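Reading a protein record of the kind used here takes little practice once its layout is understood. Each number in the token line that follows is a code from a learned vocabulary of backbone shapes. One such record is shown here in full, so that the layout can be seen directly:
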Amino acid sequence: MAEEIKDIYWEDVKEKYDLPQKTRVIDTTIIAAGAMWASHDFMPVHHDRDFAQGKGAPDIFMNILTSNGILASYLEQWAGPAAKMKTMQISLQVPNFPEKDGNKMDMNARVTKKYEEGGEHLIELAFSGDNNLGPHIVGTAVMALPTKG
């Protein structure tokens, strides 16, 4: 049975609220498909293991657009379909490499600010996506949430 999609309402969110952690397996398929299919990034370090290793990397690694998309999806799935992503700023830290047993990225976020502006009900979130090497992606996002009234 599919999980019911629910909207998060602005009235129900408080500053310092931690979103539920979500984990994403990072394997060769998500790295290569994210680069080539989703973002049309054909740089060989994202899909050709021999090329990446020839450049000094231990394996292929995730591109910035795939990382951004995975984190945006995490926030949007939490907030629900009525929420709107307004801004997102990211910084890449350590790479996301696949591993034989499947590397993973643990995504976490916290509401750092709640406010109204221009007729919208907004929240600011600080987020990170961490793998076995440390923080892969960190950043902030502003989302508009629906209200009950």
Remarks:
- Residues 64-79 form the longest helix (16 residues).
